[in-house]
Amino acid sequence: xxxxxxxxxxxxxxxxxxxxxxxxxxxxxxxxxxxxxxxxxxxxxxxxxxxxxxxxxxxxxxxxxxxxxxxxxxxxxxxxxxxxxxxxxxxxxxxxxxxxxxxxxxxxxxxxxxxxxxxxxxxxxxxxxxxxxxxxxxxxxxxxxxxxxxxxxxxxxxxxxxxxxxxxxxxxxxxxxxxxxxxxxxxxxxxxxxxxxxxxx
Length: 201
What we know:
Arc Repressor Mutant, subunit A; 9 helices; DNA-binding; DNA-binding transcription factor activity; transcription cis-regulatory region binding; HTH-type_TetR-like_transc_reg; Homeodomain-like_sf
């Protein structure tokens, strides 16, 4: 049986009009990024595109980096929803080993696809946005225990597997010449599958 996971981040209560403005701003930011790239998104430009006052944008995000943090957070929530209640093998209903493989592949794709947002969200002295619960390590720990209840040190293994997920995308992205994104996803996804299947064979 799947153990329940704690949702990403803390529940946020906000007025209906504030929630509408937030979604309006995030939608406008996504359109601007799709059309012009992350580099062209500014606080003033976002206010104009969303047809809202500049004060609303500054109150909502604080800084330009705050725009990208909010976008990553929203996408993280959607990713977690797929893990918790989406279709298998990423969601519940599949055996633990296929779920581990699917999770790793999906997480690698997520990290690679959000690389520009992650860079833009960085502020001096501040960590990248994240939830209060480390979903990746927790989810890996649960699935490892389901796959092999006698597996030694599942907590340590979950931490090491999390590092294996997050490190290789950064190394591939820093390589010269840069490799096509879909090729990187395929190479890392297959490497993850081999790692999991050999660990739990």
